[in-house]
Amino acid sequence: MRRNLKKPVALLTAALTAASLLAGCGDSSEEGAGADAGTQVNETDTAGAAAETPADSAETVETAGAEAGTYPLAEGGTLTYWLQLNPNVSANFTNLGDTELGKAWQEQTGVTIQFQHPAAGQEKEQFNLIVADGSLPDIMEWQWVKNYPGGPEKAIKDGVIIPLNDIFKEYCPNITKYLAENPDIDKMIKTDDGNYFAFPFIRGEDKLCYTVGGFVRQDWLEELGMEVPATVDEWHDVLTAFKEEKGAEAPLCFDWTNFKDSNPIAFAFKVGTANGTQFILDDQGKVAFAPAQEGYKDYLMTLNQWYNEGLLDRDIATLNGDQVTAKMTSGKAGTSVGWAASRMQLFMTSAQQSDPGYELVATPTPTTEKGAVPEYGYVENQFPDVSAAITTSCKNVELAAKFLDYGYSEAGHNMFNFGIEGVSYEMKNGKAEYSDIVINNPDGWPLAQSLAKYIRANYNGPFVQDLNYLEQYLQLPAVKECPSVWAVPDARKHTVPNITPTQEESKELATITNELGTYVSEMSLKFIFGTESFDNWDKYIETLQGMKLDRALEIENAALERYNAR
């Protein structure tokens, strides 16, 4: 039985409360927006869904009535879909529906989509307004785990989005099959109460999660007769040689704002982090605060030594990406940290226009001892939290579910990852290969923008990202090696998954971590620049404790226990 549910005033009140709390959250986000009240759900009251379906939701979803659908959908219809417009899209388009991907998505599913996008830089504010006034869209892309206080379960209880357990069973054979075959992923997209909450973006293979690392001037190493550094001491030797023999004024150059916690040296001392957090999992599997570890002191002492010796860029605190690019492509710097494509590949293609011999090579995560195996390293979560939820305002949940499930079909997978066959890609030897119109854009667009005209694989969406996309996006041989070189097999053991504190915990945790983060950022630079003595390290730790660090760890570990029990 299906019924049309009117969203009660109580839900709007809850939504207003949630929206007021969201204003305090500080992560970057992906979003969605706009229809009116009322929804159709399969025998599920959206306001109390978590309480009504616990036994069912605690299990991995199994297909009940769903069978592989036929696309385009005969019933058709129109849906509203609010999401952030990726910068690689907005560089040339004002609406996702104007891209070839947007057109193909609608044509192949038979569903008309009214895409709506918040203004760049105002995503959270507009999300708050949408939730507060109740003008929810049919579909909403957002970081429900990180950017909704209390996480997706609270969003369900607030009447913002609907649980999808019954929806998956009845209408979504493609994602159901994928989750049954990938229980680790299945765990990631459930709430602590066992409710599925959205159609996720998933990195299909581990190699897609190793996107950041160090790289060094290979041509300089060869000229100097040196090997790629594999230990902290070898890094020091290379940087010294670059300064003394090559005249590099900033041998190690990277933007501290982006990579202060995710650079190779931090990981060498077992205090590096990824996914926008400063929390790690220690050797016992408990959440720990990286800047409070003894290894963090060793990390800062190393950078302080390098700063004093002129090996670390003296402007590191204020550098931006453009400035790093300028120094790395002009010979002023010889090593850096960043993304494989948008940094390392960019540096090589830019510099080689005037210096054909310019070469970079990826550096493995270093260790502090020769011959040791790295334990910590940069690795992103396979589910990075961007996901498309169906809201309580959706009047045709069946249509929305079938539309979103398309991304997990073979045809949808190819569309999101490669675009339109015969236009943006061709099948060769059983593999999709991007066409010349993408690789060599006739309008001179950068590759990332050219890809974004036809696909979403170079950012996110409701589908599983294909490794074949990355292997073609990374065009230069040296850059193609990055994921393999940067991979640390044990890194995920020390990476905190997408845990969800309760609403009350989220509010308290945000207050504590904001204060901790500000203090750590300030003191880290003081220690590096020598304006704060390491004799005051114990005082630094005491200050962290006074900022309720122990309470933050208590909240994080409680959330981790709930996650592990899913």
From TrEMBL:
PANTHER family recorded: ARABINOSE-BINDING PROTEIN-RELATED, POLYGALACTURONAN_RHAMNOGALACTURONAN-BINDING PROTEIN YTCQ
Gene3D superfamilies in the cross-refs: Periplasmic binding protein-like II (3.40.190.10)
Keywords carried by this UniProt record: Lipoprotein, Signal
Record's signal peptide: 1-23
Lineage: Bacteria, Bacillati, Bacillota, Clostridia, Lachnospirales
Organism: Eisenbergiella tayi
Name of the protein in its database record: Lipoprotein LipO
Coiled coil, from the record: none
Keyword Transmembrane helix: no
PROSITE patterns cross-referenced by the UniProt entry: PROKAR_LIPOPROTEIN
SUPFAM superfamilies: Periplasmic binding protein-like II
Domain of life: Bacteria
Keyword Signal tagged: yes
